């Protein structure tokens, strides 16, 4: 299910999963892919609970800030460890671009 957000200036990006809020800056992406032309960002995280999630963030069309997406929506998909390993491997060349 899509969850819409609209951040104020300097407000941290947070996503909610199973009733818990997670701040992006407190997590380390195991894989990521950012498409600035389409304003779509995808991430794989291992949460402190041990669960893996695939996070897709889509910015509104007018969102072209170098500071990230401030308005749009996101979807959190729980994935298995096996799926996470596959995604991490598949996105490894993209992930290396952001290191």
Helix content: 10-25%
Low-pLDDT stretches are none
Number of helices: 2
Please report the distance between the alpha carbons of the first and last residues. 30 Å
Strand composition percent: 35-45%
Indicate the structural class.
alpha+beta
- Computed Rg: 13 Å
How many E-type strands? 7
Largest β sheet strand count, sense and barrel closure: 5 strands, antiparallel
Strand order of the largest sheet: 1-7-6-5-4
The coarse silhouette is globular
Can you offer a commentary on this structure?
The structure is a single chain. The protein contains two helices and seven strands; from the N terminus they run βββββββαα. With 99 residues, it is an alpha+beta fold. A five-stranded antiparallel sheet has the order 1-7-6-5-4. A hairpin with a 5-residue loop joins strand 5 and strand 6 (52-59). The chain is globular. 15% of the residues are buried. The model has no long low-confidence stretch (mean pLDDT 91).
Summarize this entry quickly.
This protein is α+β, with helices and mostly antiparallel strands and 99 residues long. It is 16% helix and 41% strand. The chain starts with a strand and ends with a helix.
List the helices and strands and how they pair.
Blueprint: E1 3-6, E2 14-17, E3 20-23, E4 31-35, E5 40-46, E6 52-59, E7 71-79, H1 81-90, H2 92-97
Antiparallel strand pairs: 1-7, 2-3, 4-5, 5-6, 6-7
């Amino acid at each position: 299910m899509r969850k819409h957000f609209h951040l104020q200036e300097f407000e941290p990006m947070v996503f909610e999963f199973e009733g818990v809020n997670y701040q992006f800056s407190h997590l380390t992406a195991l894989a990521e892919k950012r498409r600035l032309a389409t304003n779509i960002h995808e991430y794989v995280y291992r949460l402190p609970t041990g669960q893996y999630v695939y996070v897709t963030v889509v910015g509104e069309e007018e969102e072209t800030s170098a500071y990230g997406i401030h308005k749009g929506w996101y979807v959190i998909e729980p994935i298995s460890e096996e799926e996470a390993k596959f995604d991490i491997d598949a996105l490894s060349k993209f992930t290396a671009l952001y290191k």
